[in-house]
Amino acid sequence: MIDSLFYMISNQQSPQAFALYESLIHSEVEPRAKLSIAIEAYKEKNESVFKSVLLDLMANHGFVNDNSTQGVLFSTDITSGIYAEWFNNVKDSCKFVYEKTHFQRKEVIETLKRIYERDQSRGEIYRTITDEKLADSIVMALDETNFQELLLISKSYGLPNGFDDVYNAGGIVELVLLHCSKNPSGFQDRWDAIMPFINQIFDLDKGSNGFTYIYDMTSRLHFGVQYYGTLPLDEVPVKDMEGLQSRRIRYCLQ
Questions:
Q1: Which tens digits make up the pLDDT trace of 217-250?
Q2: 167 is in which domain, residue-wise?
Q3: How many structural domains does the chain have?
Q4: Whole-prediction pTM
Q5: What is the chain's Cα-based Rg?
Q6: Which neighbouring-strand residues pair with 226?
Q7: In this structure, what DSSP letter does residue 130 have?
């Protein structure tokens, strides 16, 4: 249904897409998809849908207007524009609800914040350290620290995700996987370590298949092969071609 919704949006059928969204069980919609819907509603000047979806993101998924959301299309208007007064009136009550309902996930949420902040320092390292090899070694160590911290929190709470933690949890997890996968040393060992937690979250219908493209892209870079078939099959050979169809079904790649 979500695929149909975004197909409608891509074909300039936003009113129909918003109507379809309202018919869905919102708690079952991936939070990053909700953010995309809020952005579309903002672009289409549909105030009621925009406010409704953003309230959901704030109260149930921890959306806040901070440095991490500066690039979001509507961030200026909730800071000082047409939605600023409304946003300021509701943000504290939404934060109260979110913190109360996510109290048991506080350690996960704080870990994700720490991982994200550390990840964002990569750019500053490359800007300030002129010795490229030294900068690379520092960044690789940082990426490994982030991965190990992600793995540790996953062992205690399961893989962080947007349903249970914060709306952009899936994106933070994917950033960690992308950046540490650029290092060929220990590549498969890291993936073997995290995959049980990815599978667990898929079994709960809370998984995101973005990791499959990350794996294929970096596997192609290092070894010249892919595994999930997210890259052109006529250009990149598939490791274990016999199991490709079952993997694509397993991770909703059909």
A1: 999 999 999 999 999 999 999 999 999 999 999 9
A2: 111-208
A3: 3
A4: 0.92
A5: 20
A6: 238
A7: -
